[in-house]
Amino acid sequence: MIYLKNAQQLALMRKAGALLYEVLCHLREAVKPGMSTAELDVYAEQMIRKHKAVPSFLDYQGYPATICASVNEQVVHGIPSDTVILKEGDVLSVDCGLILDGWQADSAFTVGVGPISPENRRLIDVTEECFFKGVRQAVNGNHLGDIGFAVQTHAESFGYGVIRDLTGHGIGRAMHEEPSVPNFGRPGHGTKLRPGMTLAIEPMIAMGDYHVAELEDGWTIVTEDNSVCAHYEHTIAINEHGLPELLTYPGYVLAEETT
Ligand code: MF3
Ligand code: CO
User: Fold this and answer.
1) Tens-digit pLDDT string for the chain (259 aa)
2) How far is the CA of 104 from the centre of ligand 2 (A)?
3) How far is the CA of 233 from the centre of ligand 2 (A)?
């Protein structure tokens, strides 16, 4: 069942989202060649706890960290480690979630470590564009398939693969609520979107084929063809006006569609 949030609940989710935005901004600035992904994880947990929030990933189904740090061909759920040292040219995805006053926020970004290749730069940029194409469709009366279709169309126009085995999701008091939010779909198909719905929209886009595999650690998802992957995610609400609001990107205003 889909839990619609009222104005009060949305206000609380906005607070959780705003805090996560701050945390992710600091993490993005902290990424440097030579540092380990475990260092980023410690920094994230400290920031979250300092603000009286709780890391939502830690202990989730036994997950051992505050962030997921996924490098290059790793799609998502990379476990931070002292032995993973970031180097120039890497493509790093950082995913993080927190709980503030009982409400969840979930967001991810992908960044180049130092200078990166033009091909990888484009993959990161297009993945972000995919998110924004998708979120524009998150308006009252549209369908979930409109979001997925917009993401998929943009990614595939560059020859990229849209990961299918993992999706976005509803979010609220729980990190994962109904519905699931695929990054592919057919216009006009799937659940109808309504004010009060809160969704994590999270395109995962591979340079190559979309098939993925899980590593022996039981968490890390990689592309089967080892092509580089990017991930971009925000928690959004369809607000009382029926329009998308980016809870984990406060102040961001979606411009009028021109095309
Ligand atoms: N952000 C991820 C998602 O959207 C959650 C990471 S799974 C965890 O589903 F185990 F790391 F929490
Ligand atoms: Co998510």
Assistant:
1) 999 999 999 999 999 999 999 999 999 999 999 999 999 999 999 999 999 999 999 999 999 999 999 999 999 999 999 999 999 999 999 999 999 999 999 999 999 999 999 999 999 999 999 999 999 999 999 999 999 999 999 999 999 999 999 999 999 999 999 999 999 999 999 999 999 999 999 999 999 999 999 999 999 999 999 999 999 999 999 999 999 999 999 999 887 665 5
2) 10
3) 7
Spatial CB neighbours of 224, under 8 Å, sequence gap ≥ 6 = 209, 211, 212, 213
Ligand 2 centroid, distance to 200 Cα (angstroms): 5
**Ordered strands of the 244-246 beta sheet:** 177-181, 168-170, 198-201, 234-238, 244-246
**Number of Cβ atoms within 10 Å of the Cβ of 75:** 28
> Which of 70, 95, 204, 233 for a ligand 1 pocket mutation test, highest count of atoms within 8 Å of Cβ?
95
Task: Give the separation between CA 169 and CA 120, rounded to whole angstroms.
Answer: 27
CB distance 53 to 80 below 8 Å: no
In this structure, how many other beta carbons lie within 10 angstroms of the beta carbon of residue 253? 8
Please count the other Cβ atoms lying within 10 Å of the Cβ belonging to residue 27: 21
Pairwise CA distance, residues 122 & 211, whole Å: 20
